[in-house]
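Severity: low
Component: inverse-folding endpoint
Summary: output formatting inconsistent between runs
Steps to reproduce: submit the following structure tokens with default settings.
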């Protein structure tokens, strides 16, 4: 994953970059087979690891001069995905589709701190 992000960041520094004044990264995330554990929480360490690595590489790209305007994680809530239906979950907030109950996943609590620090905690 770091190789892909690194390669993409390097591509952004190429002359084609002059077509854009800045980049806005959207719909970046990871699907997981999330579930509620016995403690009533949703532990999604794989998602935290993926997003942390991605944001670390994005920070390096910014430090190297790539004009990044922002980053939007996909997705805030679990939802219906065209490719996976309701089987895979992309959100940082777990949605019980029958009751509509929402539970903040570990990644949501982690990402809250990332936002508060403007990415310095990554």
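Observed output (run 2 of 3):
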């Amino acid at each position: 994953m770091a190789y892909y992000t690194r390669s993409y960041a390097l591509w952004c520094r190429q002359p084609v970059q002059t077509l854009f004044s800045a980049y806005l990264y959207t719909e970046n995330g990871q699907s997981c087979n999330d579930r509620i554990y016995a403690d009533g929480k949703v532990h999604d360490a794989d998602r935290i690891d993926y997003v942390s690595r991605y944001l670390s590489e994005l920070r390096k790209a910014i430090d190297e001069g790539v004009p990044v305007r922002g980053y939007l994680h996909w997705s805030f809530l679990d939802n219906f995905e065209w490719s996976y239906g309701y089987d895979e979950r992309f959100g940082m907030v777990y949605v019980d589709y029958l009751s509509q109950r929402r539970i903040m996943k570990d990644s949501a609590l982690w990402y809250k701190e990332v936002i508060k620090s403007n990415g310095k905690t990554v």
